Amino acid sequence: MRIRFAKFATIFLAVGIFFSAVAFAEGRKDIDTFLKSYEEFVVEAEKTAAKKDLLSIMQLQTKSVEFADKVGKLNTSGDWTAKDLQKYTELTTRYTKAMSGVMK
Question: For the whole model, what pTM was predicted?
Fold first, then answer.
């Protein structure tokens, strides 16, 4: 009886670890995808701000709201690393700097 329980416990633990790893991988994938698309958005914003194209800048503001919604959903994930947060902060600082440059 103990051997069956030990075997069951081992299998149960292995399955739990597998599904945790899969869930973590999906969270990582979502964060990586978000950061990549956010960086592309920031580069686009920097180029647009340099041109001072007000119509395009207004369209970027709409996109920035979409990114804020996405990051809000991802914030519930415990998969963010310190490196992820640093990159997100750096990108947000670059975006803010680009948009504030338009006002000058």
Answer: 0.69
- Judge whether 39 and 84 are in contact, CB under 8 Å: no
Instruction: Give, as one character, the DSSP assignment of residue 72.
Output: H
- 22 burial via Cβ count (<10 Å: 0-12, 13-18, 19+): exposed
pLDDT digits (tens, 9 = 90+) for 24-57: 335 778 899 999 999 999 999 999 988 888 888 8
Alpha carbon 88 to its chain's center: 8
pLDDT digits (tens, 9 = 90+) for 10-27: 333 333 333 333 333 357
Biggest CA–CA distance in the chain, Å, is 77
